[in-house]
## 1
Amino acid sequence: MSGGRPALIADIGGTNARFALVGSDGEPTGTRVLACADYPGLAVAARAYLDLERPDPAPDRAAIAVASPVVGDRISMTNRDWSFSIPELRAALGLGQLRVVNDFTAQALAVPRLDAGETHRIGGGTAISGAPIAILGPGTGLGVSGLVEAPGGGCIALATEGGHATLAPADARERAVVGALAARFGHVSIERAVSGPGLGNLALAIAAVDGLDRAALEPDEVTTRALADVDPVAVEALSMFCAMLGGAAGNLALTLGARGGVYIGGGIVRRLGGFLEASPFRARFEDKGRFRDYLSAIPTSVITAENSALRGLTALLEQGG
């Protein structure tokens, strides 16, 4: 880093903020996870992290990934009531340089840095070197990105808001559930079902379709009950979640021509283990009519590495971000 000073990197989601420092060796250190709900805004959270780590000298530049669109100098997060000005944040933290990107831009940049043991393959297919790569992952929202080769070498990560594309039901049961979601939300984006809150939304919608009187469940409760196989509604909600994730991943693969592979990130999917493999995820990924053979040749993999977006931010710093 410049003049021997470290850089600050941070991955800011709707629930947690992950911070680390990057020194001259390019490796993240001092990684900490802070709960977003404990802080009124990003500047306060970042300052709290720096007060805990007390780097000496202090960082003079930073790369921050946020779970929201990055358009202009004012950032308003989608699933957290944080809003900030990039120039004001740079000044508040005493930084000479600050780069802010979408969180799945950082996730995409991390993919080439993953070791073989940090992904878990689901389904067949063989990645084609140099072809576009697709990345998506459910968390507090649904992040979506892609990675394409840049002219002259290197990669370009696509900043998208694909999680807010319209959710497409695949059969009568899903149409009924999406109808219940539409009655509640109006527009039903993929994120309304394929995310942490989406798990709770699906459980309530399934119960409504079946005429059951059910209290809302937190996403962790839905997952815990489903994995323990003690709640039929939770089991169906998690299975439908996996199927819809597969459908969204297949759509993204077609849109990007992602013959370099599709990668699924986020802590929710990592927690599912064998449930995802046994679910309709891969079948729905391939279920695209005349393009079934095209998709069956594309590998899908779960990113098992923790804090992978931080590695993407390190790559961004190395690019001069």
## 2
Amino acid sequence: MTAQEPRRFDAAPFSLSLKVITVGATAILAAMMVLAPRAVVHQGAELLARGITLVLVFGPPLMIAGALLFMVRGYALEPGALLVRRLFWTTRVPLAGFERAWHDPQAMRGSKRLFGNSGLFAITGIFRNAPLGTYRAFVTNPAEAVVIRLASGALVVSPALPRAFIAALESRDAAR
């Protein structure tokens, strides 16, 4: 592996719960977009009804598009950094202070979301639970969670091949 060629890993396939949340939320947002404006037009003042209708028509697709943009497609490791591949860009996360990494299907259990998305196309953002403290997550399947412990805190990711990801992460080239 050279500095120009990061080692790439696909994200784990969506978990059943992520699929259910994504399909369910998308269906609810689509229903809001179609049904709610019709109900609003028959209520209250015309100007207010038009404003609410615009929000209900354009809000759901914007919410879906926004979540879709932040979905996790995969990961790449380069010396000193984890690259989280999104739909149109990559988020670079420094691995300074790397201590260790391990596969833990229970890593996210009991977590509270502090900021982020808990299931529309991904589980991403800042979370907190007792075992890990405050951590950043870039996850598509919690059962495939890999915890990366840094001196500054923890990261949780879900590569399709957790053991291969950990081996690459712990190699001298990736961990520096």
